[in-house]
Amino acid sequence: MSDLHQDIKQLIIDALGLEDISTHDIGNDQTLFGEGLGLDSVDALELGLAIQKRYGIKIDADAKDTRNHFTSVDSLAAFVSARQVA
Amino acid sequence: MSWIDLEHLLLDAHPQRAVAHAPAFSHAALQERARCVAAALQQRGVTRLAVHLEDAAELAIALFAAWRAGVAVLLPSDLQAQTRQRWAGHVDLWLTDLPGDTRLDQLNADPLPPASLDLDQCSLSLCTSGSSGEPKLIEKRLRQLANEVSTLERLWGADLGDACIIGSVAAQHIYGLLFRVLWPLCAGRSFVRQQLPFPEDLQRASREHESFAWVASPALLKRMGDNLDWSHLSAVRRVFSSGGALPADAAASLHQRLGQWPSEILGSSETGGIAWRQGDTLWRAFDDVSLSQNADGALRIESPYLPSGHVEQTADAVRFLEDGHFELLGRLDRIVKLEEKRISLPLLEQALATHDWVSEARLAVVRGNRASLGALVVLSASGVHALRNQGRRALTQALRQHLVPYCEALALPRRWRLLSHLPLNAQGKLPQALIETLLVSPRTHVPDLVAQEQHDDEWRLELIVPLDLAHLPGHFPGTPILPGVVQVDWAMNLSQRLMDLPPRFAGMEVLKFQKLVRPGDRISLTLRFDPERSKLHFAYRNGEAACSSGRILLVNADA
After folding, report:
1. Which pLDDT band holds residue B475 (cuts at 50, 70, 90)?
2. Do both B407 and B503 map to the same domain?
3. H helix or E strand, kind and range, residue A14
4. How many structural domains are present in chain B?
5. Which of A22, A38, A46 comes nearest B474 by C-beta?
6. Are A17 and B474 in contact (CB < 8 Å)?
7. Where does the record place the Carrier domain (chain A) (predicted)?
8. CA distance readout (Å), A32 to A2, A3, A13, B88, B95
């Protein structure tokens, strides 16, 4: 697991105030929203803010499907890496 | 026994009509005394009188005297210095049991003649704490009080018959005043003079009367034990309860012991009686009270017990059923909004309490990046078992799952604090602000110290391992145990508080861990310092069983 993956998992836990969950409990490809971790759309909004702030990146408000980046830790890590390079 | 309207109680004298016992007191005597006191009040030029009298018969004399004399009456809820200071400007004379104030027997003059009382001129003011905590005055005209006692008699007069009225509540508040004093006076029932807050006194008073009824509150009714003579007490004509919600199990226990359900009265100082229920979760309004809801769903009251034309808006959320019965959903300040969704905290608390693992629960909003709910949960015995054998996460997940049918996903509590009991304040309440504080505070790192004693150079401590100890989850999430390193840490920290020890940890020896220590365990810890070798001996035991022991080498900071 990359540092970025680990970092994002900790960010999810901290930003959403999740109790009794450690980074080990979140799988890289686990669905974060809906079933999965049981997070909802408001969590997705919160996480969006936290990701942008933490990594100094912007989610393109005009692009379609930006929320697809939030499917899993894998997709978030890919998104953050791509943005940081850009 | 015949009814006399409240405003006509000072008209004709009825020497055969009993008002109170020990000493016996008749209606004729009450009437005579009230007219004498009325004359004395007029002679002294009193226009505003504060009354605080323990004896309900004396209170009755004072009230009727004031009304007969055209004097405004204030009934302060207590006589604390702050209360007196607050109302000092509203009062010419304090008529109380306290030394330094005027006593009732000091007020004497040739009696004023008998007369009817004016329903709209006579009044009294009650003090209440108000929902903001700031005391306020509530004025009641005699008409409002007369309307209410008439309703009570229509509902329950026949049942009560000639029962002597025995009260566990003060007559100084609206409920006690109406039920213990004014209603019996009009109905011709006698009452016990003193407030009897203890079950044993209530029983003794009950034995002295062939027929009796209780005017009580949950404070007493939920604390009546097996020490009482229930077969005798079951002769009670009716058990009234008001002032707060009577827990369902207390009501059921009374039903089982007395063969009747308590009659609960819903009301407040502002509104007087609103509704009643008996062995039911649903309330029904008193006949002449008319109820509705505002846009927020809060109960609105129009009632002949309120000043005419006044509509009282409460903060109690309510749901009406077709037959006119209604359900109280809790105070509106306990209905919160999360992301525009309205959530009733009491409803979810009740739902949580139906889970086998939960004995009580309180919820509050936890404000973080997003607002969510947090839960204070008092675990039942099976809940503690589940925590110890499945772990905290499995427990909270199961409780969240249990709530799924009751609310939207966003209302599922995200933060949990597991407690052995709710930290109620002196009034038996848990203010919302305190729930919030407890939920925001980090989980504890230290044991609950329940006892400590010293024998020579040895200390013996009794500890309870908190259910919610912060050290527990990460270790063995499925079966939380108290880590050995934490046991060593506690031994060091506790002994450093009790004894004068070198501060620095320099090693351990002969460590033995023999038995697991788990959340909720009550354990003993013995501590002894051997100054020669500079070693702290510690041993944890659970009952007879040794849990762990060892020696900790301590050295000075500069060593």
Report:
1. low
2. no
3. helix A3-16
4. 3
5. A22
6. no
7. 2-84
8. 18, 19, 11, 64, 70
Mean pLDDT of chain B: 91
Judged by CB atoms closer than 8 Å, whether chains meet at A16 and B369 is answered as: yes
The reported pLDDT for the residue numbered B316 is 86
Under 8 Å CB-to-CB from B315, ≥6 apart: which residues?
Answer: B131, B298, B331, B332, B333
Check whether residue B125 and residue B154 sit in a common domain.
yes
Q: In chain B, which residue's Cα lies nearest the Cα of A14? A: B369
Same domain, B434 and B455: no
Measured distance CA(B527)–CA(B485) in Å, rounded: 16
**Looking at the structure, do residues B307 and B452 belong to the same domain, yes or no?**
no
Same domain flag for B358 and B314: no
B151 neighbors B286 (Cβ within 8 angstroms): yes
pLDDT for the residue numbered B62: 98
Can you tell me which residue has the tokens 């209606």?
Answer: B27
Domain boundary, last residue among B440, B473, B496: B440
Are residues B455 and B504 part of one domain?
Answer: yes
Residue B308: band (very low, low, confident or very high) from pLDDT cuts 50, 70, 90: confident
Going by pLDDT thresholds of 50, 70 and 90, the confidence category of residue B59 is very high
Domain annotation covers residue B334:
no
Task: State the DSSP string of B435-486.
Answer: HHHHHHSPPP-S-EEEEEEEETTEEEEEEE--TT-TTHHHHSTTS----HHH
Whole domain around residue B496: which residue ranges?
Answer: 448-555
Residue A9's domain comprises 3-18+25-85
Q: What is the pLDDT of residues B27-44, one digit of tens each?
A: 999 999 999 999 999 999
State which residue of chain B sits closest to A41, comparing Cα positions: B410
Give the CATH number of the domain where residue A65 resides: 1.10.1200.10
Q: What is the mean pLDDT of residues B353-379?
A: 92
Taking the C-alpha atoms of residue B150 and residue B178, their distance in angstroms, rounded to an integer, is: 11
CATH number reported for the structural domain that contains residue B492 in this entry = 3.10.129.10
Q: Looking at the complex, report in whole angstroms how far the Cα of residue A61 sits from the nearest Cα belonging to chain B.
A: 21
B59 and B152 part of one domain:
yes
Distance from the A52 Cα atom to the nearest Cα atom in chain B, whole angstroms: 14
Residue among A17, A21, A46 whose CB faces B415 most closely: A17
CATH number of the domain encompassing residue B426? 3.30.300.30
Q: Does B372 touch chain A (CB under 8 A)?
A: yes
Of B25, B33, B51, B15, the closest CA to residue B114 belongs to: B33
| Digit-coded pLDDT (tens) for A44-81 | 878 888 888 899 887 776 666 777 888 899 999 999 99
Q: Is A56 on the interface with B (CB under 8 A)?
A: no
- Same domain assignment for residues B346 and B325: no
B133 — pLDDT class (breaks 50, 70, 90): very low
The 8-class DSSP code of residue A39 comes to B
Which residue carries 């005009």 as its tokens? A62
Number of domains in chain A: 1
Q: What is the pLDDT of residues A2-32, one digit of tens each?
A: 799 999 999 999 888 888 788 988 999 998 8
Looking at B385, B406, B440, the residue that finishes a domain is B440
Which residues, listed in sequence order, are joined to residue B371 by a DSSP beta bridge? Answer: B367
Helix or strand (DSSP H, E) at B155: helix B142-160
CB contact under 8 A, B370 and A50: no
The pLDDT, as a whole number, for residue B195 is 92
Residue B112 lies in a domain: yes
Complex ipTM:
0.71
**What pLDDT is recorded for position B551?**
94
Q: Which residues on chain B are in Cβ contact (under 8 Å) with A40? A: 409-410
Its pTM stands at: 0.62
Q: Which B-chain residues 294-353 have CB contacts (< 8 A) with chain A?
A: 339
CATH number for the domain that contains residue B76: 3.40.50.12780
